[in-house]
Design goal:
This protein has helices at about 10-30, 80-95, and strands spanning about 30-35, 45-50, 55-60, 65-70, 75. By secondary structure, it is α+β, with helices and mostly antiparallel strands. Helix 1 crosses helix 2 (about 80-95).
Length: about 100
């Protein structure tokens, strides 16, 4: 039997708020970043430089959220926005996933 998982509006709002916090931190340190809301309603950040880009999402539920890449790499807890911003800046500089 398949289990149906639904995401509530409050969870989507929390994820969006945490992604916008990371967006602020990335802008603060000078990284080229764009916040996007795709059709499925889940916000994502697109971090890029001249020849490389990374998509960052906020995953989790019930008060435990984390930043992850579209490739599945766990970047850190959503409470560590500054640390994750520095990590993403380093990844862009080194062009490493």
């Amino acid at each position: 039997m398949k289990r149906l998982v639904t995401i509530t509006q409050s969870e989507l709002a929390e994820r969006r708020a945490r992604l916008l916090r990371l967006h602020y931190e990335l802008k603060r340190i000078g990284v080229n970043v764009r916040a996007r809301k795709p059709r499925n309603g889940r916000w994502k950040l697109k971090v890029r430089n001249k020849s490389w880009s990374e998509t960052v999402l906020c995953a989790g539920a019930d008060g435990a959220y984390a930043y992850v890449t579209a490739h599945g790499r766990l970047l850190g807890s959503a409470d560590e926005a500054r640390y994750v911003a520095r990590l993403l800046a380093w990844m862009l500089e080194r062009r490493q996933r």
